[in-house]
Amino acid sequence: MASVCKGGEILGTTQGQFDTIVKINNQLQLHYPPAGLGNTSTTLLFTCDIQSTNVNGGIISFNKLTSDGNYILNVLTPLACPPRLASCQLQDHLVNRYNLSRLYRPTDNWNATEQRYHGKFTYYINFCGSLNPIDGPFCSTMVPYLGACQVDAATNKSYNLGHITSSPEVQHDRIIIRYINGDLCHHQYRRSTIIHLICANIEDQLKFSHETYQCEYIFIWRTPAACPIQQVTGQNCQVKGPSSGQYYDLSPLSNNKADYIVTNNQTSYRLNICRSLKVPCGTDSSSGSCLYNKGTQKSTSLGNSTSQLIYHPDYLTLYYTDGNYCDKSRQLRQSTVIRFYCNPNSGVFGSGPIFLRRWPNCIYEFRWETVVACSTLQNDHCQTSITDTTTGYQYDLSRLVKTDGSWLAVSSTLNSSYYINICQTLYDKTGCPNTSKSCLMTHQNGSTSVSRYSHNLGRFSNGITIKNGSLHLDYTYGDVCPDGYSRKTTKIVFVCKAGAKNAPVFLAQENHCHYYFLWIHEAACPQQPLIGGNCIIDNLSMGYFFNLNALYNPLDDYTAHDRKGHVFKINVCGPMHDRHCGRGSGNCQLYQTNHSLSYDGGRANMALRYNRGRLYLKYSDGDLCHKVYRRTTIIIFTCAADISLGKPMFVHENHQCVYTFIWPTKLACIQQLQCLARNSNGSIVDLSPLTTDQGGWQVYHSTSSREKMLINVCQTLHPVSNFHCPPDSAVCVVLPSSNMTYNLGKVNQSPSLNKDGFISLRYDQGSPCPFNGHQNKSTTVIFTCRTGAIGYPVLDLTLSDPCQRVVRWPTNIVCDITQRKRNSCHIYNSATNLRYDLSPIDDTGDTIFQSPLGLLSLSLCGAVTKKSATQFNCSASSICLSNHRGHYLSLGSIGDSILTNINRNTLKLQYFNGSACPTQLNQSISTTIIFVCQLDSIQTKPQLLNGNNHSCSFTFIWITKYACPLLMQPDCKVSNGNDQFDMSPFSFKASEWKWTDGKDNRYWLNLCGPIRHRPQGCLQSAAACMQSRQQINAQTLGLIWSKKLLSSNHSVTTISFSFGAPMCQNVHRLATAMIHFKCDITVGRPQFLRLDNQNCHSEFFWPSILACRKRQRLHESSYCVVIIDGTNNITFNASLLALSYHNWNMTSDGNYVGHSLTYHLNICKNVNGLSPNSSCKGSSACMSDNNGVEQLIGGSAEERQFYLRNNNIIEMVLPTQQPCHNIPHKMVETVIFFPCDPAHLVVSKSCNIISTFYHDFLFGTHLCLKPNPKSYTTNLYLLLHNFTT
């Protein structure tokens, strides 16, 4: 086989696997011998080409032809470059210096992940040094100067992605690092790695970008390490590096108890950090460093202490100068230099001070490796994303990372403020230490001023973890605890709740050392890839909103350049202006010197995508490339809070002609405005419950104007059909005369306390004012406390003008909702009108669960009943611990307890007076259980949050539906005195009543719980809503918890609802609604009667058999023959409907029961044709789903009961012993009515399978009973509707 040819002449042949590259005189050579009997051969001389970007190729040139017929060819290629340790210090053409040494990982590696359709890959990379060993093992690190490794999780294989052969290079706006000559790929290429380091103020994560056709693996990292270095000096033992968020603090090394001692033969040194020595250096009390000679017993000052800390790119320095004179000439003084080096694995005190040398100029040099010398960007690598290996769910908390401030946590302590961030230090002006990720600020009122003290509650973290199905984030190594040696820590527990944007809540602290927080937020829910049209992603269920329309340049296209002389014309979210590539192109590639040559890089579209933290547009189907591929463009938008619009930057073009660009812009950042404010009494108010994910709130006003005004709280408005508000507007108005919309303000600031003592929220930068072109429209919302309801925004006409609107919002959100009750398991909150009841948890007996402490028995509302517990120390205890040593401890009792309603979704139950504390005299054990509302939670158990065998207090967290307010749980009965009315037969199990009247007004009604499928504008706790044809939002007519029984008799029952929207002429009057239930011979349906605009009052009418309060039990004279009137011998023979071999069968379409079901019924007999193992065997009514899963819904025919309603309607009840899943102590039953009118079947709220009027299929057995003085059975008329046998 020929390997070298010239024309048709063979100049050398390969020996296959016997070809050998040799090194002669430091020259790599490969010799191809002659072919056959010929004399011509070839020798290749390989030379390292460190500058080449073609990592899989080279340049061949002729050198000479020797006298013996050997062709000498030169091959210039980067593959000939030997692996070597490269310098991480470099400079650009402007003499800016860079130092990447802080990116070196001494014990582990940086990593990035990639998810492909066929598996998941993890990449391990190091900088400025070889890759460290990877657990597995993967990619043998015995290979010299290995830079990167790929691990395939599916096959458990690893691949060498290249060696370190060259130093980093500065190219335009980034630093390029290349690792080459890795493992073979596609049988022809060597794997290589290219990393783009881009200067950024905020540390981002190392991200995999893509893989090229030639197996080049491209990574992007926005990091302060890629910025030019500067030397900075700081005070108070702290210094801020040149990049944002790069803080250093050596104050933990300042020792107020003893000096540090370093011994070196006959000499010892005493040092302290940023303070003078505890023991004076001889007579000098200002020294920070002292030498003691054991022979002469003389002390010499090596410099006075200072707290002036100096930043260098590789270390921190303290200089102690002006010590004793060091020579007879008295020209030089002794001094000390201490250099602190970052070692993330060393601990705070690390190596301690190590004496290195004494310089001729009387400088004593020390080295100290410590984690404290690591910056806030170095000291740990906190991961904000994680995949649950059990469920496969992906979680990403990156949207909670604050890049310009911190999160204020809600707490009940008025003189304390807690601030936290996610995997980042606190970037704000709260006074917290710059190195803290969690901080406590305490306030003490003095005689003339307020003193503020900060406490670092945690610096380091390994990132989020999953424990018992919940996300946890731990911070360690805060300030020293009161015990003098422990360090303060923080634990944050995240709970997923769709649509929730709540603030973090401070739960508890232990010994002023360990602090615990709860954060209920939609960001804690599993994440899925998103795609949206019109350059907008608006996925409220996952909490993401991006709008890139502002990036469209209507005047000219954006330009970007590569290193090959190409210019790219790009526009996004609108058509391009350049026409070289024709209409419809989104990226047009041109030559800088010749625009006549152009290539369409992909057809433009506005399908914005978000996946695994990456926001991007993809343009496909461009011009043909390499006669095989169609050009494609990927534009990745990255968050850059300090860049308004930004511009695209070229990253790479692979062999398949995929062009990759990055575009830093603040529009790719997730809005992080915190919706908190301090009330006039110092308490913290969270307005996030007023943030709506359905368009916006309608602002009510009493004028005759038909203008429509929408507002959202702390967030931009979401798209509304037929109501096109300007982008980024949080307040918007549409004028009906012109149908024009105006931006009345954007969200730019958090709520605050105004001069009148009310919480207000200002929106600014709206549309230009009509009469003042230099001023923009704005809106101010003033929140006032009104107990009872969440309220509605109302326009204040007295304070508003065309340029500034003032909206008043009376709401219980700003009221103090904290309520406490002693020795109880239930609580009523008068501010919110919400009730909570934890007692159903005890219905099944004691809760027994295992914990790290041992076995725990819990009876929330009473004493534990476990015999072994009551025989020892747990008598009358509500929570009892059997520890691993067999001892029983009472952890508290309900008889000495406090139940606190922290917020709408959280309760705190504290038990006191437990067993004697093992470590504190005269103190008993106490326990706190934090209950978190989650309606769809399964049977859960408490989780231990803090406490050990030596603790005096314990904290548990319990996620359960029983912590939810009762309005969210079944509540179907309403009473007035001794009178009670059960509305459960009028409510659907999985939906609500909805209908449209003759004027196209739409109505929604639910009686036992809130409307489930709420239209836009209908409040979460609404029982009745109405939407007229002209309205954008539905109007709330009344709230579910406000229902009352007004009047009742045997024929009419009236129920009222209140706290509806102020939709009438008097905007200060909240709407009310009434429903009149009237006894009738049909099941009926609700009907709208009238709306009183003056009094804001609506009425409904509902004729129904279910409203007949009089109910008489009937008895059978013989088999299924019911006695109606024994005196006149009037009977009803139901056995005529009994089937001997078949069943009455019907199928629902799922509109009201939640999913498709089939019902099998028989009258006076059990269901026929069931399998021997059927769960419905021996029953007269059975229900099955599409999968054939059966559920018994009616007991045996022998257990039937007959009733007479309204003297002419027969009711048959088929009871069971099957518990109703959503109502305690309620059993499933089937109810069959026999009226003279058609009826439908539905599953009611209270687990009754009943005949009601309005449904998609008919029940089918309806008897018109013609008058007959002798018997109801002589003239029987049977109607069958949609019924099969």
* Whole-number mean pLDDT: 82
What is Rg?
A: 39 Å
Distance between the termini: 83 Å
Give a quick account of the main beta sheet: strands, pairing sense, barrel closure.
9 strands, mixed
Number of strands: 106
Residue windows where pLDDT falls under 50 for at least 5 positions: 1237-1285
How would you describe the shape? Answer: globular
Helix content: under 10%
Supply the helix-strand structural class.
Answer: mainly beta
H/I helix tally: 1
The fraction of residues assigned to DSSP E strands is 35-45%
Short description:
With 1285 residues, the chain is mainly beta.
Question: How do the strands and helices of this protein lay out in sequence?
Answer:
Elements (H helix, E strand, L loop, with lengths): L1 E5 L2 E5 L7 E4 L2 E6 L8 E8 L10 E7 L4 E8 L11 E3 L5 E3 L10 E7 L2 E7 L22 E5 L4 E4 L2 E2 L4 E3 L2 E7 L3 E2 L3 E2 L1 E8 L7 E5 L4 E8 L8 E3 L3 E3 L6 E3 L10 E5 L2 E5 L17 E5 L4 E4 L7 E3 L4 E5 L14 E8 L11 E5 L4 E8 L14 E3 L6 E3 L10 E3 L6 E5 L17 E8 L4 E7 L8 E3 L2 E6 L13 E8 L8 E6 L3 E8 L8 E3 L3 E4 L4 E4 L10 E4 L4 E5 L16 E5 L2 E7 L7 E4 L2 E6 L4 E2 L3 E2 L1 E8 L9 E5 L4 E8 L10 E3 L5 E3 L10 E2 L9 E4 L19 E5 L4 E8 L4 E2 L5 E6 L13 E8 L8 E2 L8 E8 L7 E4 L3 E4 L4 E4 L9 E5 L2 E5 L8 H4 L8 E5 L4 E3 L2 E11 L2 E7 L13 E8 ...
